[in-house]
Amino acid sequence: MKTNRITIIVLDSVGIGAAPDAHEYGDVGTDTLGHIAQARGGLHLPNLGRLGLGNIRPLDGVAPTLHPTGAFGKMQEISVGKDTLVGHWELAGLPTHEPLGQWPNGFPEEIIAEVRAQTHHDVLGNKAASGTAIIEELGAQHMATGDLIVYTSADSVLQIAAHEEIVPIEELYKICRHMRMVGDRHRIGRIIARPFIGTVGAFTRTYNRRDFPMVPPGPTVLDVLVEAQLPVVAVGKIHDIFAGRGMTEAIHTKGNADGVSQTIRLLAEKQPAGLIFTNLVDFDMLYGHRNDAAGYGDALEAFDAALPDIEAAMGPDELLMITADHGNDPTTDGTDHSREYVPILLRGTGHLDAAVSGRNLGIRQGFADVAATLTAQLGLDPWPMGTPLL
User: Fold this and answer.
1) Are both 95 and 123 inside the same structural domain?
2) Which pLDDT tens digit goes with each residue over 62-110?
3) Which of 106, 116, 176, 242 would be a feasible disulfide site paired with 126, CB 3.0-4.6 Å?
4) Residue 127 lies inside a defined structural domain of this protein
5) What is the pLDDT confidence band of residue 271, given thresholds at 50, 70 and 90?
């Protein structure tokens, strides 16, 4: 039951109910998929439902199916945190046991002084905030003074927002690269450049965002694939999450539709091999963090509508894995990630179709089962952590 190529699509923040330790993170009762479905009076996801999404647990509008065409289950994170980095690192076989730094009350002067020294501008904000809200609050002052908007969240991030006409994009990237070196000393998971455009009262963040993350603190399964001379193509912000390590090609995208389009293009290429690793960020960035349950539901239905095209582009004897990295329940009062189970759906073609169809994967202890599946299905030495899903 081996294959030459696997595609992983991470639906960023699409959690499927509070994890058993959600109380440790202030996330009791969170349920990204469940609450979106309730808020919309049901979700229309016939293709994800066909794979077995409703068999993981019933959702409004997505009932269990008698004969799923995919394998289905959910995974519980073992890493400390509910951050994009630790979620993706664990998917790649590297759990995080030492928490990354967090500053819910703003960064200390030692860190802020580095921003001032690098830019010769003062800092606005320096607090935990929603990105869109803080730009609305401080955007006019930033445009008048050139001072940088610095903020954080419940995740280990230092975000710097600037208008593209006030601080050119390359200058903002340069500032963030310098702060990455500072962040390494303080275990800041990500330094994020957050460019925006527009006028007062009508600011819009752009897809020129760039993440400058910590380098993964150990090897991941991506490194193993590259060492085995297998192609690893990163689509979306995967390159940023892994600091460019463990990949042979990186394709930055402008939203979910572009990410899906690029994935389909790669699937249709000749002589398939290795791994396509895609992150679809709009679920989290545009809808979860903005408490937009309606928009989140629309994005889920748009991905579902594109799923048959993804399946049609797969070659013979290939494996598709659809999962998430954490939750971000848009119906809660907060705007941060939530500690949730994540769904895992598998779709196989050729001989893998029979191996996958109707398989109940149950509740998996840790995301590293994804990494273990990669090495098992690609014919490599077993990954030392996790159990293959097949």
Assistant:
1) no
2) 999 999 999 999 999 999 999 899 999 999 999 999 888 888 889 999 9
3) 106
4) yes
5) low
Distance CA 311, CA 299 (A): 18
Sort 207 into a burial class: Cβ within 10 Å, 0-12 / 13-18 / 19+: middle
Do residues 6 and 277 touch, judged by C-beta distance below 8 A?
Answer: no
Same structural domain, 205 and 231: no
Residues 94 and 208 in one domain: no
Mean pLDDT of 241-264: 95
Q: Are residues 140 and 255 in the same domain?
A: no
> At 243, is the pLDDT very low, low, confident or very high (cuts 50, 70, 90)?
very high
Same domain, 38 and 179: no
- List of E strands, the chain: 5-11, 71-76, 123-128, 148-152, 157-163, 190-199, 202-205, 210-213, 232-235, 249-251, 274-280, 319-323, 342-348, 360-365
Tokens for 50, please give them: 């066909």
Write down which residue in 212, 240, 258 finishes a domain: 212
Number of domains in the chain: 2
Q: What is the pLDDT of residues 182-216, one digit of tens each?
A: 999 999 999 999 999 999 999 999 989 888 999 99
Task: Give the model's pLDDT for residue 1.
Answer: 62
